[in-house]
From TrEMBL:
This is Aminotransferase class V domain-containing protein. It holds the Pfam family Aminotran_5. Residues 63-321 form the Aminotransferase class V domain. Keywords: Pyridoxal phosphate. Residues 1-16 have a biased composition (Basic and acidic residues). Residues 1-29 are annotated as: Disordered. It comes from Streptomyces amritsarensis. Gene3D superfamilies: Aspartate Aminotransferase, domain 1, Type I PLP-dependent aspartate aminotransferase-like (Major domain).
Amino acid sequence: MTETTRPDHRPDRRPAEPPAGERPGEFPGGPALFRLDPRVAHLNHGSFGAVPVPVQEAQAALRAEVHADPDAFFTTLPDRLEQARTKIAAHLAADPDGLAFIANATEGANLALDAVPLADGEEILVTDHGYGTVTAAAARRAPVTTVALDPALPDEDAVRETVLAAVTPRTRVAVLDHVSSPTARIIASPRLIAELRERGVTTVVDGAHAPGMLADPLATGADFWFGNLHKWGYAPSGTALLAVAPQHRHRIRALVPSWEDGHGFPRSVENRATADYTGWLAAPEGLDLIEALDAAKVRAHNSTLAAHGAALLAEIPGLTPLPHTDGLAMRTLRLPPGIAQTPDAARALREEIAARLRIRVLIWPWPGGGGIRICGQIYNRPEEYARLAAALPDQLLRNA
Ligand SMILES: Cc1ncc(COP(=O)(O)O)c(C=O)c1O
Protein backbone atom coordinates (compact mmCIF):
# COMPACT_ATOMS: atom_id res chain seq x y z
CA MET A 1 0.00 0.00 0.00
CA THR A 2 2.36 2.67 -1.13
CA GLU A 3 0.07 4.75 -3.28
CA THR A 4 -1.80 7.64 -1.84
CA THR A 5 -4.97 9.54 -2.65
CA ARG A 6 -2.90 12.47 -3.83
CA PRO A 7 -0.68 12.83 -6.87
CA ASP A 8 2.16 14.31 -4.85
CA HIS A 9 3.25 14.40 -1.25
CA ARG A 10 3.52 17.96 -0.07
CA PRO A 11 4.06 18.44 3.66
CA ASP A 12 1.02 19.23 5.77
CA ARG A 13 0.60 23.00 5.35
CA ARG A 14 -1.44 24.41 8.17
CA PRO A 15 -1.80 28.14 8.72
CA ALA A 16 0.45 29.60 11.36
CA GLU A 17 -1.05 30.54 14.71
CA PRO A 18 -1.51 34.32 14.89
CA PRO A 19 0.83 36.16 17.22
CA ALA A 20 -0.24 35.72 20.86
CA GLY A 21 -2.40 38.54 22.13
CA GLU A 22 -3.35 39.80 18.68
CA ARG A 23 -6.89 41.15 18.90
CA PRO A 24 -9.00 39.86 16.05
CA GLY A 25 -11.10 42.25 14.02
CA GLU A 26 -13.93 41.74 11.57
CA PHE A 27 -13.22 40.09 8.23
CA PRO A 28 -13.90 42.90 5.73
CA GLY A 29 -17.20 42.14 4.00
CA GLY A 30 -17.40 38.75 5.72
CA PRO A 31 -20.75 39.01 7.55
CA ALA A 32 -22.45 40.51 4.47
CA LEU A 33 -21.61 37.40 2.46
CA PHE A 34 -24.10 35.37 4.49
CA ARG A 35 -27.80 35.66 5.30
CA LEU A 36 -27.56 34.46 8.87
CA ASP A 37 -30.03 35.67 11.50
CA PRO A 38 -28.23 38.71 12.96
CA ARG A 39 -29.90 38.25 16.37
CA VAL A 40 -28.02 34.99 16.86
CA ALA A 41 -24.29 34.47 17.47
CA HIS A 42 -23.47 31.57 15.16
CA LEU A 43 -20.38 30.08 16.78
CA ASN A 44 -21.00 26.55 15.52
CA HIS A 45 -19.98 26.62 11.87
CA GLY A 46 -18.41 23.18 12.30
CA SER A 47 -21.70 21.34 12.69
CA PHE A 48 -23.63 22.34 9.56
CA GLY A 49 -21.57 25.03 7.83
CA ALA A 50 -23.34 28.02 6.26
CA VAL A 51 -23.73 28.85 2.59
CA PRO A 52 -22.54 32.26 1.35
CA VAL A 53 -25.00 34.25 -0.76
CA PRO A 54 -23.04 33.94 -4.07
CA VAL A 55 -23.10 30.15 -3.68
CA GLN A 56 -26.82 30.20 -2.81
CA GLU A 57 -27.38 32.24 -5.96
CA ALA A 58 -25.33 29.88 -8.12
CA GLN A 59 -27.39 26.96 -6.85
CA ALA A 60 -30.65 28.86 -7.40
CA ALA A 61 -29.63 29.55 -11.02
CA LEU A 62 -28.90 25.86 -11.55
CA ARG A 63 -32.27 24.90 -10.07
CA ALA A 64 -33.99 27.35 -12.44
CA GLU A 65 -32.14 25.70 -15.31
CA VAL A 66 -33.36 22.23 -14.26
CA HIS A 67 -36.94 23.45 -14.08
CA ALA A 68 -36.68 25.23 -17.45
CA ASP A 69 -35.56 22.14 -19.39
CA PRO A 70 -35.10 18.97 -17.35
CA ASP A 71 -34.11 16.90 -20.41
CA ALA A 72 -31.31 19.26 -21.36
CA PHE A 73 -30.05 19.34 -17.79
CA PHE A 74 -30.02 15.61 -17.13
CA THR A 75 -28.57 14.58 -20.48
CA THR A 76 -25.54 16.84 -19.98
CA LEU A 77 -25.17 16.00 -16.30
CA PRO A 78 -22.27 13.49 -16.47
CA ASP A 79 -20.08 16.02 -18.31
CA ARG A 80 -21.00 18.83 -15.97
CA LEU A 81 -20.27 16.71 -12.94
CA GLU A 82 -16.90 15.84 -14.37
CA GLN A 83 -16.13 19.51 -14.91
CA ALA A 84 -17.16 20.38 -11.35
CA ARG A 85 -15.18 17.47 -9.94
CA THR A 86 -12.09 18.48 -11.92
CA LYS A 87 -12.30 22.06 -10.61
CA ILE A 88 -12.60 20.82 -7.05
CA ALA A 89 -9.72 18.38 -7.49
CA ALA A 90 -7.54 21.29 -8.63
CA HIS A 91 -8.47 23.27 -5.50
CA LEU A 92 -7.61 20.34 -3.23
CA ALA A 93 -4.52 19.05 -5.09
CA ALA A 94 -6.39 15.79 -5.64
CA ASP A 95 -6.37 13.29 -8.49
CA PRO A 96 -9.72 13.94 -10.29
CA ASP A 97 -9.98 10.24 -11.25
CA GLY A 98 -9.79 9.26 -7.59
CA LEU A 99 -12.42 11.69 -6.37
CA ALA A 100 -16.23 11.38 -6.32
CA PHE A 101 -19.03 13.63 -5.18
CA ILE A 102 -21.07 12.04 -2.41
CA ALA A 103 -23.84 13.37 -0.19
CA ASN A 104 -22.09 13.47 3.17
CA ALA A 105 -19.30 12.11 5.30
CA THR A 106 -21.43 9.28 6.63
CA GLU A 107 -21.97 7.99 3.11
CA GLY A 108 -18.22 8.20 2.52
CA ALA A 109 -17.53 5.97 5.52
CA ASN A 110 -19.96 3.34 4.27
CA LEU A 111 -18.62 3.38 0.71
CA ALA A 112 -15.03 3.10 1.89
CA LEU A 113 -15.65 0.31 4.37
CA ASP A 114 -17.59 -1.73 1.80
CA ALA A 115 -14.50 -1.65 -0.42
CA VAL A 116 -12.22 -3.36 2.10
CA PRO A 117 -12.55 -7.15 2.15
CA LEU A 118 -12.69 -8.28 5.77
CA ALA A 119 -12.09 -11.87 6.85
CA ASP A 120 -13.62 -13.48 9.93
CA GLY A 121 -11.79 -12.38 13.04
CA GLU A 122 -10.47 -9.15 11.51
CA GLU A 123 -11.27 -5.92 13.32
CA ILE A 124 -11.73 -2.22 12.65
CA LEU A 125 -10.00 0.26 14.92
CA VAL A 126 -11.83 3.49 15.80
CA THR A 127 -11.32 6.10 18.52
CA ASP A 128 -13.74 7.44 21.10
CA HIS A 129 -13.45 10.86 19.42
CA GLY A 130 -14.95 9.45 16.20
CA TYR A 131 -18.26 10.73 14.86
CA GLY A 132 -21.18 8.49 15.87
CA THR A 133 -22.53 7.65 12.43
CA VAL A 134 -19.05 6.91 11.09
CA THR A 135 -18.25 4.61 13.99
CA ALA A 136 -21.64 2.95 13.46
CA ALA A 137 -20.68 2.29 9.81
CA ALA A 138 -17.59 0.46 11.07
CA ALA A 139 -19.53 -1.50 13.69
CA ARG A 140 -21.98 -2.72 11.02
CA ARG A 141 -19.18 -4.41 9.15
CA ALA A 142 -16.82 -5.91 11.73
CA PRO A 143 -16.01 -6.00 15.43
CA VAL A 144 -14.55 -2.64 16.44
CA THR A 145 -11.75 -1.87 18.87
CA THR A 146 -12.31 1.59 20.34
CA VAL A 147 -9.15 3.43 21.35
CA ALA A 148 -9.74 5.73 24.31
CA LEU A 149 -8.00 9.05 23.70
CA ASP A 150 -7.89 11.27 26.76
CA PRO A 151 -9.04 14.70 25.49
CA ALA A 152 -6.11 16.17 27.44
CA LEU A 153 -3.43 14.19 25.53
CA PRO A 154 -0.80 16.89 25.03
CA ASP A 155 0.07 16.62 21.34
CA GLU A 156 -0.06 14.73 18.04
CA ASP A 157 2.78 12.43 19.14
CA ALA A 158 0.80 11.30 22.20
CA VAL A 159 -2.27 10.73 20.03
CA ARG A 160 -0.23 8.72 17.51
CA GLU A 161 1.40 6.56 20.15
CA THR A 162 -1.93 5.80 21.83
CA VAL A 163 -3.52 4.73 18.54
CA LEU A 164 -0.54 2.58 17.50
CA ALA A 165 -0.46 0.86 20.89
CA ALA A 166 -3.99 -0.43 20.24
CA VAL A 167 -3.11 -2.12 16.90
CA THR A 168 -3.13 -5.92 17.09
CA PRO A 169 -2.59 -8.63 14.44
CA ARG A 170 -6.39 -8.63 13.99
CA THR A 171 -6.54 -4.91 13.10
CA ARG A 172 -7.33 -4.73 9.38
CA VAL A 173 -8.69 -1.18 9.07
CA ALA A 174 -8.37 2.04 11.07
CA VAL A 175 -11.06 4.72 10.80
CA LEU A 176 -9.65 7.97 12.12
CA ASP A 177 -10.76 11.58 12.23
CA HIS A 178 -8.69 14.05 10.32
CA VAL A 179 -9.98 16.78 12.66
CA SER A 180 -12.07 15.37 15.51
CA SER A 181 -15.54 16.76 16.04
CA PRO A 182 -15.75 17.08 19.84
CA THR A 183 -12.13 17.92 20.57
CA ALA A 184 -11.11 19.71 17.36
CA ARG A 185 -7.71 18.10 17.10
CA ILE A 186 -5.74 16.38 14.37
CA ILE A 187 -5.76 12.61 14.81
CA ALA A 188 -4.94 11.25 11.34
CA SER A 189 -1.54 12.89 10.99
CA PRO A 190 0.47 11.84 7.89
CA ARG A 191 2.96 10.11 10.22
CA LEU A 192 0.28 8.03 11.95
CA ILE A 193 -1.19 7.02 8.58
CA ALA A 194 2.27 6.00 7.32
CA GLU A 195 2.96 3.95 10.45
CA LEU A 196 -0.39 2.18 10.19
CA ARG A 197 0.38 1.37 6.56
CA GLU A 198 3.72 -0.16 7.63
CA ARG A 199 1.74 -2.44 9.95
CA GLY A 200 -0.54 -3.53 7.09
CA VAL A 201 -3.56 -1.56 8.30
CA THR A 202 -5.85 0.02 5.67
CA THR A 203 -6.65 3.62 6.60
CA VAL A 204 -9.96 5.42 6.27
CA VAL A 205 -9.83 9.10 7.20
CA ASP A 206 -12.87 11.14 8.17
CA GLY A 207 -12.01 14.57 6.81
CA ALA A 208 -15.46 16.05 7.45
CA HIS A 209 -13.86 19.30 8.69
CA ALA A 210 -10.83 19.39 6.40
CA PRO A 211 -11.81 21.08 3.08
CA GLY A 212 -11.79 24.82 3.61
CA MET A 213 -10.22 24.58 7.07
CA LEU A 214 -6.90 22.88 6.24
CA ALA A 215 -4.63 24.18 3.50
CA ASP A 216 -3.93 20.66 2.24
CA PRO A 217 -6.87 18.47 3.20
CA LEU A 218 -5.67 15.33 1.40
CA ALA A 219 -2.19 15.41 2.90
CA THR A 220 -2.70 12.41 5.17
CA GLY A 221 -2.01 9.98 2.30
CA ALA A 222 -4.76 7.62 3.51
CA ASP A 223 -6.18 4.73 1.47
CA PHE A 224 -9.64 6.31 1.71
CA TRP A 225 -10.48 9.86 2.70
CA PHE A 226 -13.88 11.50 2.78
CA GLY A 227 -14.70 15.09 3.62
CA ASN A 228 -17.56 17.54 3.58
CA LEU A 229 -17.60 20.58 1.36
CA HIS A 230 -20.78 21.75 3.10
CA LYS A 231 -18.97 22.59 6.32
CA TRP A 232 -15.85 24.72 5.79
CA GLY A 233 -15.92 24.64 1.97
CA TYR A 234 -18.94 27.00 1.69
CA ALA A 235 -20.86 24.49 -0.47
CA PRO A 236 -24.59 23.76 -0.32
CA SER A 237 -25.78 21.00 2.03
CA GLY A 238 -25.39 17.45 0.78
CA THR A 239 -22.02 18.12 -0.84
CA ALA A 240 -19.10 15.92 0.15
CA LEU A 241 -16.19 14.06 -1.43
CA LEU A 242 -14.71 10.58 -1.35
CA ALA A 243 -11.05 10.22 -2.38
CA VAL A 244 -9.76 6.71 -3.02
CA ALA A 245 -6.21 5.50 -3.64
CA PRO A 246 -5.76 3.87 -7.07
CA GLN A 247 -5.42 0.30 -5.79
CA HIS A 248 -8.86 0.40 -4.13
CA ARG A 249 -10.94 2.16 -6.80
CA HIS A 250 -12.10 -0.98 -8.60
CA ARG A 251 -13.73 -2.23 -5.38
CA ILE A 252 -15.90 0.83 -4.79
CA ARG A 253 -19.59 0.02 -5.31
CA ALA A 254 -22.37 2.60 -5.10
CA LEU A 255 -24.65 1.96 -2.14
CA VAL A 256 -27.61 1.99 -4.56
CA PRO A 257 -27.19 0.58 -8.12
CA SER A 258 -27.61 3.01 -11.02
CA TRP A 259 -27.38 3.14 -14.82
CA GLU A 260 -23.78 4.32 -14.39
CA ASP A 261 -22.60 1.21 -12.53
CA GLY A 262 -20.78 -0.03 -15.63
CA HIS A 263 -18.65 3.14 -15.70
CA GLY A 264 -17.00 2.34 -12.38
CA PHE A 265 -15.61 4.85 -9.91
CA PRO A 266 -16.26 7.80 -9.72
CA ARG A 267 -19.30 7.97 -12.06
CA SER A 268 -21.06 4.95 -10.57
CA VAL A 269 -20.94 6.54 -7.13
CA GLU A 270 -22.17 9.93 -8.29
CA ASN A 271 -25.25 8.81 -10.19
CA ARG A 272 -28.38 8.97 -8.05
CA ALA A 273 -30.95 8.87 -10.85
CA THR A 274 -33.31 11.86 -10.88
CA ALA A 275 -31.94 13.58 -7.79
CA ASP A 276 -30.96 17.20 -7.07
CA TYR A 277 -27.36 17.65 -8.26
CA THR A 278 -27.33 21.44 -8.04
CA GLY A 279 -25.37 21.49 -4.76
CA TRP A 280 -22.51 19.53 -6.29
CA LEU A 281 -22.47 21.69 -9.42
CA ALA A 282 -22.45 24.88 -7.32
CA ALA A 283 -19.73 23.55 -5.00
CA PRO A 284 -16.77 24.93 -6.99
CA GLU A 285 -18.19 28.43 -6.35
CA GLY A 286 -17.61 27.90 -2.63
CA LEU A 287 -13.94 27.02 -3.02
CA ASP A 288 -13.53 29.79 -5.64
CA LEU A 289 -14.93 32.27 -3.14
CA ILE A 290 -12.44 31.19 -0.46
CA GLU A 291 -9.61 31.67 -2.98
CA ALA A 292 -10.98 35.07 -4.02
CA LEU A 293 -11.11 36.16 -0.38
CA ASP A 294 -7.53 34.86 0.05
CA ALA A 295 -7.66 31.38 1.56
CA ALA A 296 -4.68 31.94 3.86
CA LYS A 297 -6.30 35.12 5.21
CA VAL A 298 -9.61 33.32 5.77
CA ARG A 299 -7.89 30.51 7.67
CA ALA A 300 -5.81 32.91 9.76
CA HIS A 301 -8.86 35.02 10.59
CA ASN A 302 -10.96 32.01 11.56
CA SER A 303 -8.32 30.47 13.79
CA THR A 304 -7.55 33.85 15.42
CA LEU A 305 -11.22 34.29 16.26
CA ALA A 306 -11.56 30.76 17.67
CA ALA A 307 -8.41 31.28 19.75
CA HIS A 308 -9.73 34.63 20.98
CA GLY A 309 -13.02 33.02 22.01
CA ALA A 310 -11.25 30.16 23.77
CA ALA A 311 -9.06 32.64 25.70
CA LEU A 312 -12.18 34.46 26.93
CA LEU A 313 -13.88 31.22 27.96
CA ALA A 314 -10.74 30.01 29.72
CA GLU A 315 -11.20 32.83 32.23
CA ILE A 316 -14.44 31.25 33.47
CA PRO A 317 -13.77 29.26 36.67
CA GLY A 318 -14.12 25.52 36.02
CA LEU A 319 -13.50 25.67 32.26
CA THR A 320 -10.30 24.03 31.08
CA PRO A 321 -8.90 24.67 27.60
CA LEU A 322 -7.95 21.45 25.80
CA PRO A 323 -4.73 21.02 23.83
CA HIS A 324 -5.30 22.25 20.29
CA THR A 325 -3.72 22.12 16.88
CA ASP A 326 -2.46 25.53 15.79
CA GLY A 327 -4.34 27.14 12.95
CA LEU A 328 -7.64 25.28 13.25
CA ALA A 329 -10.87 27.29 13.25
CA MET A 330 -12.35 25.34 16.17
CA ARG A 331 -11.32 25.30 19.85
CA THR A 332 -12.64 23.28 22.72
CA LEU A 333 -12.73 23.52 26.50
CA ARG A 334 -13.76 21.01 29.11
CA LEU A 335 -16.80 22.08 31.17
CA PRO A 336 -16.84 21.78 34.98
CA PRO A 337 -17.07 18.17 36.21
CA GLY A 338 -20.57 16.73 36.17
CA ILE A 339 -21.93 18.98 33.40
CA ALA A 340 -22.96 17.42 30.06
CA GLN A 341 -21.95 13.91 31.02
CA THR A 342 -24.60 12.32 28.78
CA PRO A 343 -25.87 13.06 25.25
CA ASP A 344 -29.23 14.19 26.71
CA ALA A 345 -27.61 16.58 29.19
CA ALA A 346 -25.32 17.98 26.48
CA ARG A 347 -28.27 18.51 24.13
CA ALA A 348 -30.28 20.23 26.86
CA LEU A 349 -27.43 22.64 27.67
CA ARG A 350 -26.82 23.40 23.98
CA GLU A 351 -30.51 24.11 23.40
CA GLU A 352 -30.76 26.33 26.48
CA ILE A 353 -27.76 28.34 25.34
CA ALA A 354 -29.47 28.71 21.96
CA ALA A 355 -32.90 29.60 23.35
CA ARG A 356 -31.94 31.85 26.29
CA LEU A 357 -28.74 33.41 25.00
CA ARG A 358 -29.27 33.19 21.24
CA ILE A 359 -25.83 31.67 20.83
CA ARG A 360 -25.08 28.54 18.85
CA VAL A 361 -22.22 26.37 20.12
CA LEU A 362 -21.56 22.64 20.26
CA ILE A 363 -21.76 21.02 23.67
CA TRP A 364 -20.29 17.51 23.57
CA PRO A 365 -20.94 14.82 26.13
CA TRP A 366 -18.10 13.00 27.85
CA PRO A 367 -17.94 10.72 30.88
CA GLY A 368 -17.23 12.83 33.96
CA GLY A 369 -18.07 16.11 32.24
CA GLY A 370 -18.47 17.26 28.66
CA GLY A 371 -17.03 20.12 26.70
CA ILE A 372 -17.85 23.17 24.64
CA ARG A 373 -16.62 23.75 21.08
CA ILE A 374 -16.56 27.16 19.45
CA CYS A 375 -15.73 28.01 15.86
CA GLY A 376 -14.44 31.05 14.01
CA GLN A 377 -15.77 32.03 10.60
CA ILE A 378 -15.62 35.17 8.49
CA TYR A 379 -19.13 36.16 9.55
CA ASN A 380 -18.21 36.14 13.26
CA ARG A 381 -17.22 39.16 15.30
CA PRO A 382 -15.11 39.27 18.51
CA GLU A 383 -18.03 40.66 20.53
CA GLU A 384 -20.03 37.46 19.94
CA TYR A 385 -17.47 35.47 21.94
CA ALA A 386 -17.45 38.15 24.65
CA ARG A 387 -21.23 37.80 24.92
CA LEU A 388 -20.89 34.03 25.33
CA ALA A 389 -18.16 34.40 27.95
CA ALA A 390 -20.26 36.89 29.92
CA ALA A 391 -23.41 34.75 29.95
CA LEU A 392 -22.04 31.22 30.24
CA PRO A 393 -21.21 31.16 33.99
CA ASP A 394 -24.86 31.81 34.93
CA GLN A 395 -26.05 29.24 32.38
CA LEU A 396 -23.68 26.61 33.81
CA LEU A 397 -25.03 27.28 37.33
CA ARG A 398 -28.55 26.62 36.01
CA ASN A 399 -27.43 23.32 34.48
CA ALA A 400 -25.22 22.20 37.38
C1 LIG B 1 -15.88 14.43 12.26
C2 LIG B 1 -17.23 14.32 11.61
N1 LIG B 1 -17.49 13.26 10.82
C3 LIG B 1 -18.68 13.10 10.21
C4 LIG B 1 -19.67 14.03 10.36
C5 LIG B 1 -21.00 13.76 9.71
O1 LIG B 1 -21.12 14.53 8.60
P1 LIG B 1 -22.40 14.32 7.65
O2 LIG B 1 -23.57 14.82 8.45
O3 LIG B 1 -22.07 15.15 6.49
O4 LIG B 1 -22.50 12.85 7.37
C6 LIG B 1 -19.47 15.14 11.17
C7 LIG B 1 -20.54 16.14 11.35
O5 LIG B 1 -20.48 17.06 12.10
C8 LIG B 1 -18.22 15.29 11.81
O6 LIG B 1 -17.97 16.33 12.62
